[in-house]
Amino acid sequence: MDAFAVSIAAGLIIPLLTYRHVFRLAFHFGLFQFLMPVVGWLAGRSVAAYIGAFDHWVAFALLTFIGGKMLWDARHREENACPDDPTRGLLLVTLSVATSLDALAVGLSMACLNVSVWMPSIVIGLVAAALTVIGIRFGRRIGRRFSPLAQGLGGLVLVVIGLRILVSHLA
């Protein structure tokens, strides 16, 4: 659902959405959602305490930074007529990591339970990719009508997701 919400926000800010944008975002979100449980599972019990101690802070910081930037860009639209493309470069990797850190914890849990990670990881990756395609298209549709408001709302959603991750791990 994190990837879905972020893909809606991405659909809001891409001026001319192409199949390339959709593919890049869906591919990377699906790939990272697949890889993170595998990485967590491979790390196993030895590093679970170390990663679990700070993964929620990383996700919170990344999502809050990106969401805050979207809120800023929505408010100052004239100054920034061409927002950064969330389907390219470091921003794409940052979003991919931020939305898949929870999947890392799932992999760590699966290692502790001695459960195979492969089939669940494949399903997680495919579902994340599919929801990303749906989300970016939905974001594009509502973005055409309500672009500045939708971009601000998308940024707010990212900040709320970051807060939710933080609160759920600290509670």
Report on the architecture of this protein.
The chain is built from 5 helices and no strands. It starts with a helix and ends with a helix. The protein is 84% helix and 0% strand. By secondary structure, it is mostly helical. The chain has one domain (2-170). It has helices spanning 2-13, 19-52, 55-75, 89-112, 118-170. The mean pLDDT is 81.
Question: What labels describe this entry?
Answer:
84% helix
Offer a concise description of the structure.
With 171 residues, the chain is mostly helical. Helices cover 84% and strands 0% of the residues. The longest helix has 53 residues, at 118-170.
Structural class label: mainly alpha
Overall morphology: globular
Which range best describes the helical content: under 10%, 10-25%, 25-40%, 40-55%, 55-70% or over 70%?
over 70%
Strand content: under 5%
- Mean pLDDT, to the nearest integer, reads 81
Radius of gyration: 16 Å
Helix count, DSSP H or I runs of 4 or more residues: 5
What is the subunit arrangement here? single chain
Give the N-terminus to C-terminus distance in angstroms: 20 Å
Poorly predicted tracts of residues:
none
Report on the biggest sheet: none
Whole-number tally of structural domains = 1
SSE order? HHHHH
| Number of extended strands | 0
